[in-house]
Write a structure and sequence with these properties.
Blueprint (H helix, E strand, L loop, with lengths): L8 E6 L19 H13 L4 E4 L7 E2 L2 E2 L10 H9 L6 E7 L5 H15 L3 E6 L4 H4 L10 H20 L6 E4 L3 E4 L6 E5 L4 E5 L11 E4 L4 H10 L2 E4 L4 H13 L12 E10 L3 H15 L2 H12 L25 E2 L10 H15 L3 H8 L3 E5 L1 H13 L5 E4 L9 H13 L12 H5 L24
Parallel strand pairs: 1-2, 1-16, 2-5, 5-6, 6-11, 11-12, 12-13, 13-15, 13-16
Antiparallel strand pairs: 3-4, 3-14, 7-8, 9-10
Helix pairs in contact: 2-3, 3-5, 5-6, 9-11, 12-13
Amino acid sequence: MNRPLKQIHLAAHFPGVNNTTVWSDPAAGSHIEFASFTHFARTAERAKFDFLFLAEGLRLREQGGRIHDLDVVGRPDTFTVLAALAAVTEHLGLTGTISSTFNEPYEVARQFASLDHLSGGRAAWNVVTSWDAFTGENFRRGGFLPRDERYARAREFLATAHELFDSWDGGEILADQDSGVFLRDAGAGAFAHRGPHFDISGHFNVPRSPQGRPVIFQAGDSEEGREFAAADADAVFSRFASLEAGRAFYADVKGRLARYGRTPDELKILPAATFVLGDTDAEARELAREVRLKQVSGATAIAYLEHVWNRDLSGYDPDGPLPEVDPDPGENTIALGRASVRQFRDPFAVAKEWRELAAARNLSIRELVIETTGRQSFIGSPATVADSIDHLVQEDAADGFILVPHLTPGGLDAFADTVVPLLQERGVFRREYTGRTLRDHLGLRDAPGPAAPGALTASGRTAAHR
């Protein structure tokens, strides 16, 4: 018996801390003006996407002692942007990346509970463990925790935040226009947590929000990250967008859920994916080649190679061969604050692999970087891209995709206008929003515990007085 078609989940990533944007294109707009965020969010909502996702850069990246030229200077604070977007959208989920390393549970729980109220139940939290002392220098906790301790702190951080969210389970806010607002159960919001990382007690002053808790996202691909996702996340970002690698990751992470008393539908797996559209597949392939050449300039290629070699390679020709000198195995001091550095834990093995590939295909440095950092997940006509996305989801390589356009803010427009209608015609993507909250959009059950009858609405009136 054939199983029913899976419904595809789609989301949009507003770039800001990566190398995706083609800045040289005349259509490339601001990454810091609110008009760009508004256009992007409204396009995603028009296309009936599940949510918009914002990454967070806690420190400007550096390379060779200078600010990295592809970073975004002046990027607004995540919570500020998401709260503002809540006022100009009605259905779109609002997902922000907030670190568990350099924040405290009370303040983060209060911010997300507030965002969930302001948006009517559309908040989501991408929990990350900031990884380097360079970023930590911006905070009182100037060092950084070892990997095991980072995840231990993150698990306790999230558990503590859940205790705060759930502290209102028995509380009810009552209100009338004459006597004001008062709390029937004075014990609601009271909390006390004692643990190795947090020792706090008090009264949580934000009532239980429409979702009860925000949707929890997690992005780690390590063993610890996968286990953390299986235990605590509602959705996990994945870097595996191909069929074989995607199915392996999908089966591995979902296979871990049972030991936490969870079922496979309680965790959504959403790879990041780029795309290039054309009227024909051939046109799209040519456009994709042009995009990659613009994304990886000669200077960008050398900078990327320095992440592996951990040496100053500015004297090398990007159109020439790879350096004959071996990588420096010491602590990385060339690229600071760069997440990609973490991918190269064995630089000698990476250098050997790249040299073999370059020799076999006669690739220059720039050509090699383009080859090994390929970004376009979907290339083709709208029909081809729709078919590829649907195939990967139906074959359990993903539950959907987080789209990362190479132009901001208009890079999502063509996908919304051409690919989404084809997915709707197939019956695998919604034509209209049918739920109120982000949990509804993602097909997730409500967070444990009842929502308080007095959950505040955007107008400031309680649910009992709507």
